[in-house]
Amino acid sequence: MISVAEAVNLVKLNSFSFKTEKTPLEEACGKVLAESVRADRDYPPFNRSAMDGYAVRSKEWSAGKSYKVAASVFAGDSSGSDFAEGVVLKIMTGAPVPAGFDAVIRVEDAEQEGDFVKFNIDAVRPGQNMAMQGEDLEKGTEALPAGVRINPAEITLLASLGMAEVLVYQTPKVVIISTGNEIKPVAEKVLPHQIRDSNSYTLAAFFQQMGIFSVERCLVQDDPEALRKRLEGAMGADVVILTGGVSMGDADYVPGTLVSLGVEKIFHKVKLKPGKPLWFGKKEGGPVVFGLPGNPFSCQVTFKLFIQPFLRACLGMEEIVPLYFKADFERNKKSGMEEYFPCRIIEHAGESLLSACVYNGSGDVTATAMSDGLACQPLESPSVKRGDLIAFYPWR
Fold first, then answer.
1. Alpha-carbon span 135 to 316, nearest angstrom
2. CB-side exposure of 191: number of CA atoms within 13 Å?
3. How far is residue 150's CA from residue 323's CA, in Å, rounded to a whole number?
4. Interval 111-134: pLDDT, tens
5. Would you place residue 250 in the very low, low, confident or very high pLDDT band (cuts 50, 70, 90)?
6. CA atoms of 158 and 167, how far apart (whole Å)
7. Residue 376 has what pLDDT?
8. Model confidence over 141-156: pLDDT tens digits?
9. What Å distances lie between residue 104 and 46, 100, 133, CA to CA?
10. Torsion sign over Cα 158, 164, 169, 173
11. Are 73 and 55 in contact (CB under 8 A)?
12. Which of 104, 84, 85, 102 has the alpha carbon at shortest distance from 93?
């Protein structure tokens, strides 16, 4: 068996860049940017008023003085020039501040009568109530790096930069196969010895969280020929995930069937609880294949630890690093492996702590429902004491 760190490294080493495509900006939300985006000009492109008020020259400022209002400047006006000395300009939010004027006094601090205005403040500083040209972005600087997930904030920026279409990564074709004679579709009635297929829905939901919706789900019984036939049809996908059938039982046909189809085994079994039987391989010219344990909690843990980092590497996204919280519990390890367990974040005396959730092993379908994520008890750590710093991987 190999360690979790070794397994994650092997998974990432076998990642590959997904294909790219141009997509209209209105369809880009949720996708991952495949190119660096640079500013096409300064932002703001001009010195801009941040307030409704009066543009003044700070060097001409004098408290209590009455100033002539020479003109009004609105958003969308081109900035004028050649204004006489000693005058001010009435200016609206978003309007360009004409050359020579270097501060804006709020309309709330002004009293205008006719063409003259007085101000109820004692001092003015250059740049007051102004957004200066290029202070957000200078022309040519990177606005967004490749590998960024495009959310509404990124849409705002891309639209501001004039990006009517953007280069994004295509979503991979994914096939999820749940195996086992006991597994039945969710909508079907089940007998006492049967269980409903939750794993394929769980995995598909994880992919959807990453903006990947091109996912095919199916069930296959513990029959070598049926499994082989279904896997042959999945070899055109980019990623194939199987749940169940990867351990050492008499009906665990997945590893042998994959190898017989030309999928190279890269590793099988990890020093991990839950998730020890994990299988990982790759077919030349074909998909990457993950064989996950069949228990629901194991399925969730192995996706979070291995498949998510693989997908992020394929999409050029930054690695996820754990958060660290103090433990509000004590825990003794029951195995010689790296253990992951569900936790909630709680607040106590103004501090965020981790509280361990009660669950009944990797087959417990309620294990993660009310949790915020996974805590890790490392290989070399036999126990956790209250107050110890614990690595934590949030679900979101």
1. 29
2. 4
3. 23
4. 999 999 999 999 999 999 999 999
5. confident
6. 11
7. 97
8. 999 999 999 999 999 9
9. 14, 12, 15
10. positive
11. yes
12. 104
